[in-house]
């Protein structure tokens, strides 16, 4: 009797092994990535839709078997815009043996720069601060830096201003993120860009900008270039509108024309500022869903597939997160196609081959993504947008700022 039971159990174990063997044999590899960002806390109005874009695209990669039987497992953690939490998240990701890392803030990217070097980890942050690339081998900006964006806006001001040298104020976030492009703008002016920077204002938590706006008008400032996130910009332009200080035509005398870099604008700004956003000028390297096209369609369909609401679906920061996930996936795909093992070293090497005939066009940006050993800025091209009739629309063709090269 005991012998019969043993025989039955042996048979069952062999049967289970035979049934499960094919699934185990063909399960594929799992590539671990990590993302730490501000889903809550300061700048979460950008970080929240960004995280959704990353999560949805990696789910799409796995659901459509874009990498065959291989899958991407990206752990996403909220760091509340606190560098110490980001550092802890990164260390935990290393314990999980990630092969690629997606970071967020300027402060944490700068603080972890030596860590990235030490462990040789390729990193794409949500921060476009040009200083991220100084003394760094492993950080790759997804698009043109804040400095390039601000210089591009300044060049537009100089080109389209009527009258004498335009007077400009810079409205910035009180952090490394906000201060990033100020010095490079000053360098551009010193190199010959014909404008005067009258004042640099670091905004606080004060919701009333009346005194500042009146002061700028008293100094004959006509243009305000912003480098921050949408919320303080929305408050400022609503205050200006209520005071009757918003220009109705570009560079109108005695009024203020408002312009901003990537994180200041988009449909999120229009939702916050309403009619006060009219004639706000904004630059980024991302496409917008207000204008029909393959990239906009792909973004909206991705958001619909994963049940995102309309606000997230139409956010340029959803596109931002989607794009970095696209780049990470493409690098894995290319490395895999070459028959190489997928790890931080091979992905780093492949990322630097993304140029020339190997440039990558994700559809979410207005220009191609290119990287090399000497160039770690992904999309050099910018697009200027302006709010007309309550929606951002393209103003002119995509461009590359001239003074970005002049000040190198």
Question: What would your notes on this structure say?
Answer:
This protein has 408 residues and is of the alpha/beta class. It has helices at residues 2-25, 44-63, 83-95, 106-111, 113-119, 146-160, 176-179, 182-190, 210-218, 230-242, 267-273, 294-305, 310-313, 316-337, 344-351, 403-406, and strands at 30-37, 71-78, 100-103, 123-125, 141-143, 167-172, 196-202, 223-227, 257-260, 281-284, 377-379, 383-388, 391-394. The protein contains 16 helices and 13 strands. Helix 2 (44-63) runs parallel beside helix 14. Mean pLDDT is 93; it is low at 1-25.
Record keyword descriptors for this entry.
single chain; 408 residues; alpha/beta; Rossmann fold; 7-stranded mixed sheet; 13 strands
Quick gist of this model?
This protein has helices spanning 2-25, 44-63, 83-95, 106-111, 113-119, 146-160, 176-179, 182-190, 210-218, 230-242, 267-273, 294-305, 310-313, 316-337, 344-351, 403-406; strands at residues 30-37, 71-78, 100-103, 123-125, 141-143, 167-172, 196-202, 223-227, 257-260, 281-284, 377-379, 383-388, 391-394.
Topology, element by element:
Blueprint: H1 2-25, E1 30-37, H2 44-63, E2 71-78, H3 83-95, E3 100-103, H4 106-111, H5 113-119, E4 123-125, E5 141-143, H6 146-160, E6 167-172, H7 176-179, H8 182-190, E7 196-202, H9 210-218, E8 223-227, H10 230-242, E9 257-260, H11 267-273, E10 281-284, H12 294-305, H13 310-313, H14 316-337, H15 344-351, E11 377-379, E12 383-388, E13 391-394, H16 403-406
Parallel strand pairs: 1-2, 1-3, 3-4, 5-11, 6-7, 6-8, 8-9, 9-10
Antiparallel strand pairs: 10-12, 12-13
């Amino acid at each position: 009797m005991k012998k019969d039971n043993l025989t039955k159990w042996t048979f069952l174990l062999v049967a289970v092994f035979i049934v499960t063997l094919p699934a185990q044999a063909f399960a594929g590899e799992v590539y671990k990535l990590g993302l730490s960002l501000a889903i809550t806390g300061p700048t979460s109005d950008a970080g929240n839709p960004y995280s959704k874009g990353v999560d949805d695209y990696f789910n799409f990669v796995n659901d459509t078997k874009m990498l065959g039987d291989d899958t991407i497992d990206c752990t996403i953690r909220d760091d509340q815009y606190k560098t110490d939490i980001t550092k802890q998240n990164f260390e935990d990701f290393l314990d999980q043996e990630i092969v690629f890392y997606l970071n967020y803030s300027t402060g944490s990217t700068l603080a972890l720069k030596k860590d990235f070097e030490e462990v040789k980890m390729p990193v794409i942050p949500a921060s476009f601060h040009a200083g991220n690339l100084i003394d760094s081998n492993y950080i790759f900006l997804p698009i043109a830096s804040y400095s390039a964006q601000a210089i591009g806006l300044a060049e537009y001001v100089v080109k389209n201003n009527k009258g004498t040298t335009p007077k400009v104020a810079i409205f910035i976030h009180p952090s490394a993120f906000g201060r990033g492009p100020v010095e490079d703008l000053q360098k551009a002016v010193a190199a010959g860009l014909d404008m005067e920077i009258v004042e640099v204002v670091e905004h606080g938590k004060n919701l009333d900008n009346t005194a500042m706006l009146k002061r700028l008008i008293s100094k004959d400032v006509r243009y305000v270039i912003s480098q921050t996130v949408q919320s303080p910009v929305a408050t400022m332009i609503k205050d200006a509108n209520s005071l009757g200080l918003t220009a109705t035509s570009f560079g109108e005398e005695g009024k203020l024309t408002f312009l901003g870099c990537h994180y200041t604008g988009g449909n999120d700004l229009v939702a916050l500022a309403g009619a006060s956003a009219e004639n706000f000028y904004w630059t980024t390297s991302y496409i917008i869903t207000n204008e029909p096209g393959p990239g906009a369609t792909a973004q909206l369909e991705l958001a619909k597939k994963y049940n995102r609401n309309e606000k997230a679906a139409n956010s340029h920061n959803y596109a931002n997160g989607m794009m970095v996930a696209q780049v990470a996936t493409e690098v894995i795909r290319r490395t895999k196609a070459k028959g190489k093992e997928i790890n931080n070293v091979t992905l780093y090497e492949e990322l630097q081959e993304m140029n020339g005939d190997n440039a990558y066009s994700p559809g979410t940006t207005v220009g191609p993504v290119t990287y090399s050993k000497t160039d770690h800025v992904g999309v050099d091209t910018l697009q200027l947008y302006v709010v007309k009739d309550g929606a951002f629309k393209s103003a002119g063709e995509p461009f590359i700022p001239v003074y970005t090269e002049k000040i190198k």
